[in-house]
Amino acid sequence: MIEFACPHCNKALSMPEDLIGKKALCTYCHGAFMITMLDASSESGEEEPGSAHGADDENSPVVRERVAKDLEAACPEQDLLRRHAVYEALIVRYYEQRHQGAAALAHCIQACLQHIALAPRAKQALEQARPNSPLPTHMGFDLLSTIREKQGKYSEVVRLAQQAKSQGWTGDWDKRIDRCKKTSIIRKVK
Ligand SMILES: [Zn+2]
After folding, report:
1. Residue 88 alpha carbon to ligand 1 centre in Å
2. What pLDDT does 65 receive?
């Protein structure tokens, strides 16, 4: 549940979270409002034109290629679980270099994205290898949601946490979702 004050009559209301993004009516004054996730980044318009394909852009071909090469160097074989583990090591390495410049963080984010893309197959392989153990934590999901939360990209954090939770990776996903949803805002609708 989310608790907030009605933007029309100021009475305390609580509503289920699935109303986020939808129009709702106040039970007291019947005023209409919208519950929206507010991302810090969407406010400041941080997107800089021109830097779209630089070495510090997490999705640039340069960054993708470098991460692919680093993975190949550390793990020439195609073994899925080995790759899953090598991604974790790469992610940690890039993250530790982040104070050296924006490029290291971009590489770290790209490695997290690739690690997450591999996650459904890694989950299957882990469950086959250890049928009775719960899935461990997942570096890509863990670190990327931490980075995105620091960046104020709360709706992405919620999406990541829901994805990780539904796949069954261990983590404080509900707490994270809750924390990010608390940053929601309520907008008046006439
Ligand atoms: Zn009201």
Report:
1. 49
2. 95
Quote the domain boundaries for residue 92.
41-181
How large a percentage of the chain has pLDDT more than 90? 59
Q: Does one domain contain both 51 and 32? A: no
Total domains in the chain come to 2
Q: For 125-141, what is each residue's pLDDT tens digit?
A: 999 999 999 999 999 99
Q: Compute, in angstroms, the gap from residue 21 CA to the centroid of ligand 1.
A: 18
3-class secondary structure for the chain? CEEEECCCCCCEEEECHHHCCCEEECCCCCCEEEEECCCHHHHHCCCCCCCCCCCCCCCCHHHHHHHHHHHHHHCCCCCHHHHHHHHHHHHHHHHHCHHHCHHHHHHHHHHHHHHHHHHHHHHHHHHHHCCCCCCCCCHHHHHHHHHHHHCCCHHHHHHHHHHHHHHCCCCCHHHHHHHHHCCCEEEEEC
Could you tell me the distance, in angstroms and rounded to a whole number, from the CA of residue 10 to the centre of ligand 1?
6
Cα(124) to centroid(ligand 1), Å: 49
Within-domain flag for 190: no
Determine the distance separating the centroid of ligand 1 and the alpha carbon of 25, expressed in angstroms.
Answer: 8
Mean pLDDT of 65-94: 95
